[in-house]
Amino acid sequence: MEQPTDDCEGAVAQQLDQEQESLGTLIDHLEIVVTEAEKRTNGALNIREFYTVYLVETKLLKGSKWPNSRELSSLWRRYSQFEMLKLYLENMYPFVVCPCLPEKKSVYSWNAATNSSDTFDPDFVDRRRAGLETFLIRVASHPIICRDVVLLMFLQQNEGWQDKLKDYGAHSEIMPWDLLLPSRLKNPDKRFEVYHKYGSDLHLNISSTLKLRSKALEKQYCLHKLHANYGRVFSEWSAIEKEMGDGLQRAGHYMDSYASCIDSTLEEEELVADQLKEYLYLANSLQSVCRKQQIMQLNLERAMAVVDSKNIEKQRIQQGKSSLMSRLFGAVDSEEIREAKLEELEHKITQENNSVIVAQADLNKFTMNALEDIQRFQNQKNQDLKETIRAFATLQVKASRKNLTVWTHMRDCLTSIP
Amino acid sequence: MEQPTDDCEGAVAQQLHQEEESLGTLIDHLEIVVTEAEKRTNGALNIREFYTVYLVETKLLKGSKWPNARELSSLWRRYSQFEMLRLYLENMYPFVVCPCLPEKKSVYSWNAATNSSDTFDPDFVDRRRAGLETFLIRVASHPVISRDAVLLMFLQQNEGWQDKLKDYAGYITKAESKLKSLSLPSRLKNPDKRFEVCHKYGSDLHLNISSTLKLRSKALEKQYCLHKLHANYGRVFSEWSAIEKEMGDGLQRAGHYMDSYASCIDSTLEEEELVADQLKEYLYLANSLQSVCRKQQIMQLNLERAMAVVDSKNIEKQRIQQGKSSLMSRLFGAVDSEEIREAKLEELEHKITQENNSVTVAQADLNKFTMNALEDIQRFQNQKNQDLKETIRAFATLQVKASRKNLTVWTHMRDCLTSIP
After folding, report:
1. A38 sits in which H/E element
2. Contact B199, B294 (CB under 8 A)
3. In a mutagenesis test of the B interface, which of A198, A223, A395 is the best target, namely the one with the most B β-carbons within 10 Å?
4. Which residues form a coiled coil (chain A) (predicted)?
5. Chain A: residue whose CA lies nearest to B213
6. Residues A186/A301, Cβ–Cβ less than 8 Å
7. What is the pLDDT of residues A212-253, one digit of tens each?
8. What residues in A contact B254, CB-CB < 8 Å?
């Protein structure tokens, strides 16, 4: 096994280089489904700890030549394990706008009931199951990430993938990603500044939309349920009427019908909202890539600053200017000592120059890969969000049609009574 | 002019008795419209008092033989004058479930704006105009009330109808005070079950309608907020489209449809107000019905009191005849002489005869009232069944229309978005 290098492409990816072009992505070869969810428990008798596991099943498509892949697999994974996988991928492929997991807790929900922190609520669990499947499919569709060996092991091997993570453990410390302000950059890359701002604006717009959606749903729900009260009042009223009683009873039934037709609409709507939420988190992912570029640039600029300062020092020694200390106390370096210092300095300067060259190369490669992936992300986003808005409109059409149907039936029923 | 009697049918109605059957009701002969409303002012320079007047126009249909009717008329009336007319009619024809005026102030309105006491708000004034027209038409459609001379004068003569009211003023005060000095039906010895049932029905009807109106308010308020919320979507989508290159177009269009959705509620709410007014009319008619029932109970109470008086006088007569004297005499020992006893008896007999006559008259009045009232309550029930069925149908039709509008907006939005590649 090759020693993991600091190469952004990842060790394993190089192995597949030649076959890469013709192979396509993992998803073209492997069917991935997250079929079920189950509640498990561990811990002693008194301290029962519950958690949910999800069944990840894969099946290799006929005639597929994906290296190291099994034909069938079926294993249980916890949400926290998915989180580990994502963290690994983010660090292994820092220039990629990494696909996101479904939310840990329900945000922007439209009523108190779904807003609870109950991660065992069946609806929440099911939406999470769907979100995890989406995550795996997205990851397996990514031209670069999908070739990752650890990913394949996560999907197909029960044990062992976590050990592999430890091999790459050192990697995550190499780049201190959680740093600093781009304002300290001398030459910030405008392209990444623009993308960072875009990510932030996108996040803002989506979260505004989700907040509005919550309010709208809440009002829609109340409006529909109110009609159940109409049903009750009409029912009571029909009791005191002789001739009108029949008409009132029927009207009351249609009111109840209207009250209940909102429920399935809301369930379907939750799925549309989940699509929006995915991009809320992807916007963060995008900003994260931009920040990494800025950090790399910062490191480069620092390395360059070190080289500059050492060059200045060298110049000073060459021109015979001594350090402040020497001037104060009168000692002057002998010719030998000066030569020795110069040589040491030259050696360091050469080292630092190499570091700068390497850092510059890394930065260029990162920039190129990142810009390419951001483009991929933008294309995917345009396609997905257009689809999401269409789905939203289609859902509204469906709901309106349901409403129209109930009222039409009510009107026709009442008109038919003499 | 005949002296107004306590006759339930009203003096003038008697005049038309013979021609009545073939004549039909006033509305068959006279077209009545309340066309406009105008704001007037009176009072000194400093103390400006504003009020609204409504233009009442009538036109006699061709070949009509309605007595004393003019061919055309056009005059201005205030709401308070309508109130006077109604009060007169209520008291003149107490057995009638009297048609009602539109509300004095907006009740059960669904938002603070329409709930204000602003009786000069143009929408409120227009709905009141329509309500006043409905009132006049209903009154003119009533087989008994439509024949009233004062009603005709109110519709067609600018002055003079109010003087006629003064003739009946004392009558009205008496009737009002009877109503006010009310007693509970529980004091009746033989309450008429039919009227108790009708009274309860009126009370239940009022309750059900007011519950419906309250629900309606809440529903409208939520519908309004829901629609207007979508204008915010429009705003967010507009801002969002500014940062997108390829998606921008789609977002812009979606935003426009959101604005469209936000505004399509307005006309629905206006139309809905008219349906609600129909319901409100029956809210007040339910009170009218209860009022008729109470009048019957009062008449019965008076009859039972008169009968009680007769009974007590008869008992007194018996006692005198049997020689028993009053408590006072027994205490102080004085005993009436034969002459005094005879005199007392004669006086008592005279009174008893008087009281018996009163009872007979009261009984006759009650019977006539009961008969007329039951007939009018039946008329009311038939009208109500017809009207309220129509109201509920109108409500359903309005919902269909509103749903269709919503569906249209969303369908356009979806089609528009689907057509963008």
Report:
1. strand A30-42
2. yes
3. A223
4. 342-388
5. A230
6. yes
7. 999 999 999 999 999 999 999 999 999 999 888 888 999 999
8. 389, 393
